Predict the 3D structure of the following.
Amino acid sequence: MIGQAIRQLRKQRGLRLEDIATECGVTAVTISRYERGNRAPSKKMLIKLAKALSATTEELSRLAGEHKEETPSPPTGQVTSEATLTAWTTHVIADGPDDPNLKLLLFVLQNYVDKTSWVVSGTIPQIALSASLPTGMVEDLWAELLGSPFVERVGSGEWVLRLVVPRQEDGE
């Protein structure tokens, strides 16, 4: 997998995500998405990445081939397609929180889904504006939103999430 090859070379060379990002003219989040396999770099970006890593595109491709079998499949329950997004929406409607503002926030998160990586990325002020709610209210609800079974954090990013279709317990 190309992402694992990028990560391997970056670590071998003692570089930080920010170092590579600056060299390539993108954000560290973008480099992280490449490394996790949530986003594939374009050919043009691959050339920039190879240069930033003091490597060739051939070396990256060779390393990527070595990592093919190691690619983990995404955990079940994550929204990774239009079909699972529809299932997620249905689940939020049927089994979502009783608090209407919290339910509204969940629905607004759909507007921030990158349909390539299926990651939700937005700040509290952006989400508050989209939901037509005061930022303070969204800040107050944020911990509850993150504690819900409908989302999970990606890494340590406060505003980078995945939508999750909660597992149904037996008998539900």
Summary: The chain has two domains: 2-70, 82-163. DSSP finds nine helices and four strands in the chain. Residues 69-76 have pLDDT under 50 and may be disordered.
